[in-house]
Design brief:
Layout (H helix, E strand, L loop, with lengths): L1 E6 L2 H11 L6 E6 L9 E2 L7 H10 L4 E4 L2 H5 L2 H7 L4 E2 L7 H4 L1 H11 L6 E4 L2 H11 L3 E5 L8 E4 L2 H13 L4 E4 L6 E9 L3 E3 L4 E2 L2 E3 L3 E4 L4 E4 L8 E3 L5 E3 H19 L5 E11 L2 E8 L6 H8 L4 H9 L15 E8 L16 H5 L4 E5 L2 E3 L5 E3 L3 E9 L2 H14 L13 H4 L10
Helix pairs in contact: 1-10, 2-4, 6-9, 7-8
The structure holds adenosine monophosphate and glycine (GLY).
């Protein structure tokens, strides 16, 4: 197989590395990629969000499969253009990508499909927004209705801040969604779909806020770990005596009804449905859908995947996913820690020289995946984005995987580099517990 991966982040670096481990994959190209990806794939220049350009590149290159990493090309219709050129593509159509691109659309689909999610009010004026904030009460959840790379959401006890965010979304021309607050730990579950059949991956947890203890603004994600031992006991037994584990519950109550609803609407979902979930005291509820792999969860999840990824994604792209397929995972754990640039997420500084990457990778069980990196004119590795690198640690225990990720992260530096020091800490300390709602 010859595969083209679209995107330039840490997620795409993880996808490229996993594809390289598949013996059936002979060649991996990435467009536009980054400095780290260039060591694992041939880079092609393209505007990733220009449907015709990507389709032309895919056609001329004779690829067997195109894998689209980020949401922006999907929302722009890149998957449609590639599919129209007759090339299998892993990634949903523009119509199906609305599940992420419009929060209001996602709520509508969930409501039609009976999928549990936070109650929400879609406001188009400040007065409507203020009324909704009063009716839900604190903590306030205010979301920009559009793509904002995870940064359009404000969750706050501060009513003035909630109102200010709502007003700023509305004045920017967007509408705003005001939601019920969901308590309980968050889980990201990726479910592959060929439009009809589903195969779930292993649950992961992401850390969305910039600072330790979930302080500061939301980011794209500052670290992740997998698997989640604290979900082990989470099971439901139905009246017929059939017991379902966490993943089965999510597939049955969230992913399958959503995929079926999308097919019913004439927008079959082909790709990966990212189910962002809260394990609340009232059951599992959807916080958000994304229409692509999560970043930085993918950097941890794919590290443990033993099933060859290329064939799996091709099966999804060509309507041949085997719903009974049990994926193989390595024993043990993976933790990844994102190192971000100074002033991320507001206005990250770029162009700082990065040191210590090779030293970090010399540690056992440590790999470094690149996101915002570029080689400057002197051939030096420099920062080129908000989230710059993800350091992945793998080991037999979660504590050791975490220790390895941090041992690697400590070797890496540039002026203003910042990372959270509490990724996976609560899980390591056994401080997360959940019980199924009865
Ligand atoms: P979203 O972009 O919708 O995923 O929101 C980003 C983050 O905000 C989520 O990962 C949660 O941490 C938080 N969040 C969003 N919606 C809610 C909610 N209804 N209740 C509590 N936290 C939320
Ligand atoms: N890590 C959150 C996301 O990918 O949207």
């Amino acid at each position: 197989m010859k595969i083209l991966v679209i995107g330039s982040g840490g997620r795409e670096h993880a996808i490229v590395r996993a594809l390289n481990r598949d013996p059936q994959v002979k060649e991996v190209h990435a467009a536009p990629g980054n400095a780290g990806i260039s060591q694992d794939a041939t880079l092609k220049a393209v505007d990733a969000s220009a449907p015709r350009d990507v389709a032309a590149l895919a056609y001329d290159g004779g690829y067997d499969l195109v894998v689209i990493g980020p949401e922006a090309p999907l929302a722009a219709g890149v998957a449609d253009a590639v599919r129209d050129a007759g090339i299998p593509v892993f990634g949903p159509s523009q119509a199906a990508a609305q599940l992420e691109a419009s929060k209001a659309f996602a709520k509508l689909v969930m409501s039609s499909a009976g999928v549990p999610t936070a109650e929400a009010v879609h406001a188009t004026t400040p007065a409507e927004a203020i009324e909704a904030l009063s009716s839900f009460g604190p903590p306030y959840v205010v979301k920009d209705d559009g793509l904002a790379a995870g940064k359009g959401v404000v969750v706050t006890e501060d009513r003035e801040a909630a109102v200010a965010h709502a007003v700023s979304c509305l004045s920017g021309g967007s509408t705003v969604v005001i939601e019920e607050f969901l308590d309980g730990p968050e889980v990201s579950l990726f479910v592959l779909s060929d439009g009809q059949n589903l195969v779930p991956l292993s649950p992961a947890q992401d850390f969305k806020r910039i600072h330790n203890d979930d302080a500061g603004p939301n980011t794209g994600g500052m670290g992740a770990y997998t698997p989640l031992d604290w979900l082990e006991g989470y099971a439901e037994t139905d009246p017929a005596g059939v017991t379902r584990n966490f993943t089965e519950i999510v597939v049955d109550t969230v992913a399958r009804p959503t995929i079926e609803e999308m097919a019913r609407r004439g927008a079959p979902f082909i790709g990966v449905l990212y189910c962002g979930l809260a394990v609340t005291s009232r059951g599992v509820k959807v916080v958000e859908f994304n229409v692509r792999f999560g970043d930085p969860e993918t950097q941890a999840v794919l590290e443990r995947l033993q099933t060859p990824l290329g064939q799996l994604l091709l099966d999804a792209a060509t309507g041949q996913l085997d719903a009974d397929r049990q994926l193989e995972w390595s024993n043990g754990y993976a933790v990844d820690v994102v190192i971000a640039a100074e002033n991320y997420p507001e206005s990250p500084r770029k162009g700082d020289v990065i040191t210590g990457v090779q030293e970090a990778e010399r540690h056992t069980g440590v790999s470094v995946l690149h996101a915002g990196t570029v080689l400057d004119e002197n051939g030096e590795l420099v920062t080129a984005g908000g989230r710059v690198l993800a350091v992945v640690g793998t080991a037999d225990t979660l504590a050791q995987a975490q220790a390895r990720a941090y041992a690697g992260a400590q070797k890496i530096s540039w002026p203003g580099a910042q990372y959270r020091t509490d990724i996976a800490a609560k899980a390591v300390a056994g401080q997360i517990s959940v019980e199924p709602a009865v």
